[in-house]
Amino acid sequence: MSLVSLTIHRPKYFTFKPGDYIFINIPQVASYEYHPFTITSAPEELEHIRVHIQAVGNWTRKVYERFKNISENNTSGAAFHVYRADQRAAVNVNNEITTISINIPIKGEDQGGRVNDNLSFSSKTGEMAQQPREKIILNGPYSTCSRYIFNCNHALLIGGGIGITPYASILSSLMAQFRETRMTCNHCRTVTYAENNLWDNQRLKKVDFIWVTPDSKSFEWFLDLLCQFEKDQAEYLESNTNKNRFLNIQLYFTGIKDNRSVDQVLRHQVTNIWADEMGSDIFTGLKSPTSFGRPDWDKLLRDMTLGDNSSTAKDINVFFCGPKTMGKKIQHHCVDFGIRYYEEKF
To answer: Does the pLDDT at position 108 exceed 50?
Structure first.
C-alpha cells in the first residue's frame, strides 16, 4: 500500500475542529478535481495542517507517483517546494519505500539576505538551488459527526483500515490538551499534573479505540501517535494513582485468523513471551496487545456497559469509519444495546 503524508503551512485564519476535512486540488495532477481528505493534525498545532493520502484511485495514484518521481529524480539533494494557492509555503518531499512524507523545511535566502521561497540549501553541493513550484489549493474545512465525540461521557472509536484517519486529529488534540496540564519541577524534574486537569473540565471521560485492519503496513505514523499517547497516559497514572485510565486501545489484525491450529498456538506463545520480556506487543510496539481475527461485537459492546464502564454506560456513543459491511454489523449491535451510533463516510 502506498501513502502520501502531506504537511502544509497552516493559513493564518484557518480554524478547524478535530475530525474536520478539507478538499484539495493539485492543478499539476488534475486542474479541476477537488478531493476530500480528513485533517490528521490537531487544531493545537498552529504552524501546519497535515493530511494522509492513500493511493487507491486514479487521482490519488497520480499524486503518489508524481511526488515519488520528483523525489527520486531530485539528484541535487535540495528540497522540493510545494506552494499553497493563497500563500507560498515551502515544504520538503522525503521519499520512503511505501510512504512519501512531505514536511516543512527552513526557507532559503538569496544573496541579498532576503527570504526566497524558491531557494533551498543542497546538502550534497553546499550551494543554493533553484526549485520548481507546486501549487496546492485548499477548500474548507468542513465538519463531520466526529466533532460530537466531545459531547458524550464515553466514546468508542472504531476504525477499519484507512478509516482510522478521522481519529488521528482527535487523539492528537486530546494529547495536546493533556500535555497542557503537565508540570515539571525545575529542581527534581518530577512530573505532576494540574489538580483541575483536562478530564475534570470536559464532559468526555473515557475513550475506547478499536482498530480493525489486515496489517499495520503504511500506518506506522498512526502507531507512533498511539505509542506516544500510551506513554503520556502511563506517566499521568504514575503521578495520579487515584485516576482511571482515559484511553484504552484494542487492535485486531484480520490478516491472521484466530483459530486453534498449531501455528496459532505457537504464535500466541511467542507473542506472550515477547510481551512479558519486552513489555510491548511484538507486532506494533504498543503496550496494548494485538488480537487476531475480527472482534466479537456483541461481547465487546456488552462489556462496555459493565465493570469500570458502568459509570458512563448510559452515555456511550459509537463512532465508526470504515467498510460499509462492517458498519452495518456494528450498527445492528448498537441498536440491540441502545447505544447511539455515528458513521463517517469515506
So the answer is: no
